[in-house]
Structures are given as structure tokens and as C-alpha cells.
Amino acid sequence: MAYLLGLNHENPKLTTTAREIRRRIMWSIFILERRLAGGQEDLITCPKNAMHIQLPSTEKDFELAISSRTGPLVPTETHRESSSMGIRAYFCRLSSIRHEILQYTRRVVSQGANANDTGSELLQLESDLLDFKNSLPEALVLNERNLNLRAFSPQMRRYVMLHAAWHQCHCDLYRLMIPGLRDSLSGEILRNTSSDFMMYCQTQAVDHANAFFDILQMALRIGDEIMLDPGIKILVYQCTRIITQASDIGLLGTKSETLETLSKLTNAAEILLPMIAVNQSTSQLVSCRADPIVHTLLLLCRIR
């Protein structure tokens, strides 16, 4: 239907607001499709080369019907970042990178490929994520000042989730090297993988999982609104699984460092679990124990 309406093409005959609405609908389809596809290319109906529209503009330009130029999905060396690029536009780019990461990890795990042979592809995806971070304007860089400026703004949740999703992409990229996780490589392949390369990936996965909880703690100092975002539940679970599994194989460092890390997980669980249980009866909460996410939170809170 989107293709029939031509939403993936610019229409200069329409008003500024109408053009931006069409773009936002099309980019929402683009993001949602990749979120549901989980790295399976055969489920994608909106490939990158079919998106003949610019990225969404900032909320200010949209609300005031200001005609602006943003940029393409894939930035080029000759293209200068536009001041009209907002959080929504950068989410589109990050969604595209994450889809490529999931494609890579799905292929490596399903084919049982030697991780050493795919190291260059992993490093290229890592470079793409670094380029993405470096492309962020100063106003979107993660720091206390930018977070405080959005403390009472609807943009705060999107701002935090943008940076949380960036760390999620790294966790998705490296976690296949942590044994025991659902999407990790088999023990035989890991044994044949360079120990230096495997340790690098494991360390990166743990570091980025820790960084996610640091962002969470930073946001929670302002308020617990961020915990209402549906994506937070999934991120807490994924990062918790990485860290707890890393703890089992001795990747968290000294005992004091391990306890400090696990303390972050417990704090997040104690805040998140009551929100999951809001408006649920006791019987409903008990039935939720089968949910691996809730199960993990209950385990961390020691209230199983």
C-alpha cells in the first residue's frame, strides 16, 4: 500500500507538512519492519535502495511547517550533516545498521562459520557504529547537560533510547562469542576461534552492557519515565543475560567489580518489575514467571 501511494518517493507538489507526514509514515514502516525481521532479509519489503526520500526533519521544523533538507539514509563523504537532522532521523540510520548486524550474526551462527573468517565484516560493522556516533551533533551527544535539558521534555525518552539502542547494537554484534547465550556460537566453533579475538568480543559485549546500565542510572536520577518505554524491558533483559553469563565464565574482573556490576542489574530490576506488575493481580504476576524477562527480574530481586 505504501508503494502504491508512492510514500517512498518525494512529491514536490504537496505542502511541506504533507510531505513530512508521508516521510514519517514510510520511515516508521522501515523501522518497524526491521525490528520484526530480526535480521531475516526475506522478510524485508522496504530495502534501502527503495527509500527515495530524505530522512525525517526535527520536531520543531515539522510543527512549524518549515521546509528543510535533512540527509540520506546512508551518509556520504560529500554530504554535510544538516541541522534539521533530529533524533527520529538518527533512529532510522541506527535501525538500518542494527538490521545489518543481525543479518551478520544470524548468518554466522546458522552456517556455523569460523568466526576468524568473518572478523573483517564484524570490524566493518563496528566501524559503522563508531561513524554513527561521531556523526551526532553536539546537542545529541550523551552527557549530563543534554540529558538535563530534556528532563521535562517528551524528547527525553527518545534521547535516552537512541544511546541505549547504540549500545544494544554492540551487544548484538559481540554476544555470539559468549558461550551459553541463545544466539552464541557452538562450543566447537568457539574453541577454534582465536582466543584474542574471542576475548575482545566478550569484553566489548560486557562493556556495552555495562554502559547501558550506566545510561539507565543517569536517566533515573532525573525520573523513572524512561522505564515506561517498552524497549527498556527488552534491553534490561538482554544486557542482564550478557552480564550474568559473563560472570559465570569470569569476565567481570575482581570480586568487588563483579558485585558492583551485579548491583546495577538489581537496582534496574527493582525499579522495572513493579512497573510490569502495574494493574496485574497476584495470579497474573505468578503466571508471568514463565516469561524469561520477568523470570530474570524476579531472580535478580530475589523474590521468586
From TrEMBL:
<dbReference type="InterPro" id="IPR050815">
    <property type="entry name" value="TF_fung"/>
</dbReference>
<dbReference type="GO" id="GO:0006351">
    <property type="term" value="P:DNA-templated transcription"/>
</dbReference>
<dbReference type="GO" id="GO:0005634">
    <property type="term" value="C:nucleus"/>
</dbReference>
<protein>
    <recommendedName>
        <fullName>Transcription factor domain-containing protein</fullName>
    </recommendedName>
</protein>
<keyword id="KW-0805">Transcription regulation</keyword>
<dbReference type="GO" id="GO:0000981">
    <property type="term" value="F:DNA-binding transcription factor activity, RNA polymerase II-specific"/>
</dbReference>
<keyword id="KW-0479">Metal-binding</keyword>
<keyword id="KW-0804">Transcription</keyword>
<keyword id="KW-0539">Nucleus</keyword>
<dbReference type="GO" id="GO:0003677">
    <property type="term" value="F:DNA binding"/>
</dbReference>
<dbReference type="GO" id="GO:0008270">
    <property type="term" value="F:zinc ion binding"/>
</dbReference>
